[in-house]
Structure formats: structure tokens, C-alpha cells
């Protein structure tokens, strides 16, 4: 590979990614209201509990722990953490705003000044080190009041509340934030409606109609946000954010090829088609007919979607997915959060997530070929157990190997395939609470946080071996991997 082909574009946004609900803590401070994340139990059974019909959105300390309540205490330690990010050379830091810090119940008429002031301080601290904030507006932390009183995104009223929220933050931070994303992993609502859409599916209820009506309300809300951002902060960029996992057919059997295509269309492209192209695709319209889905679309909605498309696509990439039409339980890749069947060519992480660096290059090509807009990998990383050695060091070579191979795949997509990329913010640049399991032991960071699954720990920060490796990657703009 030539020196030219080893380079990333000038101005490439290297950094790390987090979410307010997984790191901030201070869940009862600053007049913050309760959100969905505050009632999510900790432990490996988290997703199972959430997927059972009738989840009641109540805190029950007799049955569960709630690690999101303290997170890693970024609320009080943000200066220390941002200084560490700066030491690594971050150009960007992806974070989310907790909706309930700005509107504690979600339906107030006026925002909470304490919450607004907190993010002022965080953004000012980032700018002190010339780190660009990349802000997710809604990241799995819908106000609990909107869930209980309105039914989450089933309700059209929530669109109005979201519009009030985005106008408040755009006006407040118009001189501090240039990069925005609307809904984190919006397509996750297909598999985790509680976290993505703000409601649980009831036993007696047909899941299709409420799920896709809620999606429509989110698409309208996202377009309203795009419109407002372009008007209030004309030089800003605002994107969508999806999970992307390329779907491989298990073999060359045409039946399996077609099945993989259909699965990919629904999960990977449905939401992006609306947010990037501004319209529902023919595929999803047929899907609606097949499942008797009759969306309530108000006058002006379709025009709003068409006229206010996003500037770029942010996406998370952790794994690929392999599918065949007829599969047994024995075939399934049970550790893969996106299911599918076992891929015999791939190894897996400590949590069973299949590791496929080439799949990231495939993803970048598929997205760029389909949409032709800039791409931003805003989540990617290895959740793994970390061991503190006798000398106090953390030799996380497995994480370095994982990241090296994925960054190399991005570099090849840019230089060999012509893909336009804005940046890379690896997930959990500092250890935080896992979204899928509520564990601290599932660590992603370059920075170790002394906090454990049982709630014990000092919260002290410690640099891992990967900290120094990533610092060199950034300093050389990706040439030294």
C-alpha cells in the first residue's frame, strides 16, 4: 500500500462516543426528570426483561439494580474526562443531551435552566481543547412522563414536545455545536421498541401498527429537527443515525439470497430511506400492505419528509449478520444481538458478538452506493473483560487488534473504493454502562473506570494500553495502526 493510500482525509474527525444515560449519572440532580434509561435493570437479563410484554417502567430495587443512576459520574467528573480525551488528541467527542435535563417531564412549556447550563459547561470544556461536540439529540432516554402519559412515540403529541426541545437546544447551543444527529440507532425500534420508541408491546396487541406509526412520528420529528437546525444554525450539519449490519446469505441458494436481501432492506434501509431520500420506499409500502399497516399520515407530512433530508449518515457498526430462510435453533448465533445464524468464518467477542472487520468496509460501500452522502462511523468497538496486571497496567491488545482491523477497513473504503467519510468516534472511549446488559464488566474504553457490576468501586480513571495506541493513530491521521 502506498503512503497516499494509508492516509485519511485532512480534517477527519477522530474521537470517541458515549451516551448521557450510560455515563452521566446524577440522575436526580440539576432538576433532571426520570427517563426510560433510569428504569432499565442492570444485568445480562436486561434485554429479556425489556422484551417481555407489559414491562411496567417502574423502579424496583427489590428485584434489580440500576447502574445508569450513577453511570461513571461524568456529571461531576466531565473536566477530568475531557482532559483525558484531549490528551489522546480527540478532534471530536460524540455525546448525547439528556432530554429530561432540558424538559424534566418532556411536556413543559419552558426548558430547565440547570440542565441547559450543564451542557454549556461541557461544550465550553470541549472547545477549550479544540474538540468538536457531535451531539445526539435523543439517545435511548425518552422522558418517562411521555412514556406513561402519552404512550411514547405512538402519540402525535410527542412530536410537538420534541419540536419544543430541539428549538430550545438549537437556540441555546447554536454557537457551540456544529454536528448533530436526531435519533440514536433509530432502526433499533424494530427489535427494542422500549428503548427506541418508548413503549412495550402488549400481549393482546398487534405489534406492527403501533411500531410503524411510532416510526412515522419519529420521522416527522426528525424532519422538523433538520428544518429547524438548518434555519437556526445554517453552517451546522445534521444527520440521522442507524445501526448497520450487512446481511450475508448463508450460501448461494437463491432462496437464501432473497431472504437476506429482504432482511437487509427492512432493518438496514427502511429508516435511512425516509431520512436520506425523504420518502417511503416501494419495498416498505408493500411490507405495510402485507402486514395490514395503515399509517395515519397528516397533511403536509410527506412534503416535510421530502424537503428536509439529513446532511449525512451516522451509523454504528459492531457486527455483520448471516441469514438463511429456514433455520433451526442450533443454527442461530445466540450471542449476536441482531440474531442471524453462526458464520463459520468469524470469531466472536466475550459476549458472543461476531467480529467482522471486512463487514465494515462492505457497510460503507453499501451505504455510499445507495445514498451518496457523507458517512460518519459514530459507534464501533469491542466490549470485553479487562484485567489489571500486577504492575497496574491494562494490556488490552485484543481491543487494539479489533480497532486496528476496523480502522484499516475504513481506510481501504476511502482510498480504494472512493467512499466519503467524515470521521470515526469509537464507542465507549471511556468505560461506561453497557446499553444491552447494564454491565460495567463489558468494557469498551481506552480509559478504565473503577466501577463494577455490583456497584462497588472508586470511579478512579486509568489509562489502558489502547489509550496510547489510539493517541498515535490520531497523531498520524491513521497512518500508524
TrEMBL record:
Record-linked Pfam families = Glyco_hydro_1
According to its UniProt entry, the protein's GO biological process terms are:
carbohydrate catabolic process
Which InterPro entries does the protein's record reference?
A: GH, GH_1_N_CS, Glyco_hydro_1, Glyco_hydro_1_AS
Active-site residues from the entry = 379
Protein's UniProt keywords contain Phosphoprotein? no
| A GO-annotated cellular component | cytosol
Q: Which UniProt keywords apply?
A: Glycosidase, Hydrolase
- What catalytic activity is recorded? 6-phospho-beta-D-glucosyl-(1->4)-D-glucose + H2O = D-glucose 6-phosphate + D-glucose
In the UniProt record, does the keyword DNA repair occur? no
Q: What is its EC number?
A: 3.2.1.86
The main enzyme category here is hydrolase
Q: Which molecular function GO terms apply here?
A: 6-phospho-beta-glucosidase activity
Record-stated family? Belongs to the glycosyl hydrolase 1 family.
Q: What protein am I looking at?
A: 6-phospho-beta-glucosidase
Amino acid at each position: 500500500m502506498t503512503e497516499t493510500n494509508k492516509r485519511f482525509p485532512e480534517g477527519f474527525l477522530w474521537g470517541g462516543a458515549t451516551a448521557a444515560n450510560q455515563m452521566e449519572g446524577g440522575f436526580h440532580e440539576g432538576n433532571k426528570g426520570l427517563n426510560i434509561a433510569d428504569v432499565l435493570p442492570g444485568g445480562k437479563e436486561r434485554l429479556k426483561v425489556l422484551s417481555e410484554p407489559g414491562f411496567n417502567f417502574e423502579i424496583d430495587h427489590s428485584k434489580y439494580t440500576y447502574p445508569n443512576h450513577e453511570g461513571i459520574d461524568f456529571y461531576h467528573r466531565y473536566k477530568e474526562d475531557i482532559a483525558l480525551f484531549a490528551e489522546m488528541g480527540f478532534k471530536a467527542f460524540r455525546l448525547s443531551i439528556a432530554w429530561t435535563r432540558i424538559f424534566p417531564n418532556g411536556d413543559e412549556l419552558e426548558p430547565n435552566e440547570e440542565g441547559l447550563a450543564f451542557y454549556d459547561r461541557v461544550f465550553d470544556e470541549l472547545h477549550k481543547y479544540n474538540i468538536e461536540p457531535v451531539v445526539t439529540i435523543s439517545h435511548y432516554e425518552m422522558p418517562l412522563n411521555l412514556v406513561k402519559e402519552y404512550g411514547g412515540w405512538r402519540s402525535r403529541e410527542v412530536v410537538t414536545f420534541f419540536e419544543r426541545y430541539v428549538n430550545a437546544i438549537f437556540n441555546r447551543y447554536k454557537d457551540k455545536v456544529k454536528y448533530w444527529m436526531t435519533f440514536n440507532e433509530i432502526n433499533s425500534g424494530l427489535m427494542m421498541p422500549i428503548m427506541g420508541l418508548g413503549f412495550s408491546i402488549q400481549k393482546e396487541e398487534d405489534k406492527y401498527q403501533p411500531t410503524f406509526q411510532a416510526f412515522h412520528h419519529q420521522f416527522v420529528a426528525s424532519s422538523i429537527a433538520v428544518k429547524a437546525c438548518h434555519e437556526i444554525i445554517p453552517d451546522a450539519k445534521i444527520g440521522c443515525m442507524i445501526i448497520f449490519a450487512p446481511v450475508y446469505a448463508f450460501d448461494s441458494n437463491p432462496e437464501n439470497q432473497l431472504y437476506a436481501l429482504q432482511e437487509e432492506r427492512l432493518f438496514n434501509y427502511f429508516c435511512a430511506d425516509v431520512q436520506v431520500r425523504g420518502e417511503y420506499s416501494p419495498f416498505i409500502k408493500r411490507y405495510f400492505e402485507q402486514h395490514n399497516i395503515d399509517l395515519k399520515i397528516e397533511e403536509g407530512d410527506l412534503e416535510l419528509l421530502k424537503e428536509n433530508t439529513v446532511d449525512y449518515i451516522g451509523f454504528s457498526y459492531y457486527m455483520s449478520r448471516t441469514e438463511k430462510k429456514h433455520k433451526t435453533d442450533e443454527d442461530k448465533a445466540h450471542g449476536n444481538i441482531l440474531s442471524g445464524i453462526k458464520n463459520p468464518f468469524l470469531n466472536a467477542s466475550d459476549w458472543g458478538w461476531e467480529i467482522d472487520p471486512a463487514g465494515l468496509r462492505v457497510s460503507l460501500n453499501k451505504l455510499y452506493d445507495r445514498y451518496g452522502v457523507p458517512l460518519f462511523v459514530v459507534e464501533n468497538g469491542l466490549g470485553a473483560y479487562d484485567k489489571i496486571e500486577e504492575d497496574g497496567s491494562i494490556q488490552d491488545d485484543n481491543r487494539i487488534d479489533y480497532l486496528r482491523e476496523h480502522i484499516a477497513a475504513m481506510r481501504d473504503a476511502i482510498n480504494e473504493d472512493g467512499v466519503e467519510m467524515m470521521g470515526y468516534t469509537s464507542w465507549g472511549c471511556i468505560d461506561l454502562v453497557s446499553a444491552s446488559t447494564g454491565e460495567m464488566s463489558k468494557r469498551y474504553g481506552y480509559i478504565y473506570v473503577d466501577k463494577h457490576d455490583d456497584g462497588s468501586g472508586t470511579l478512579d480513571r486509568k489509562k489502558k494500553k489502547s489509550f496510547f495506541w489510539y493517541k498515535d493513530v490520531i497523531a498520524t491521521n491513521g497512518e500508524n495502526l
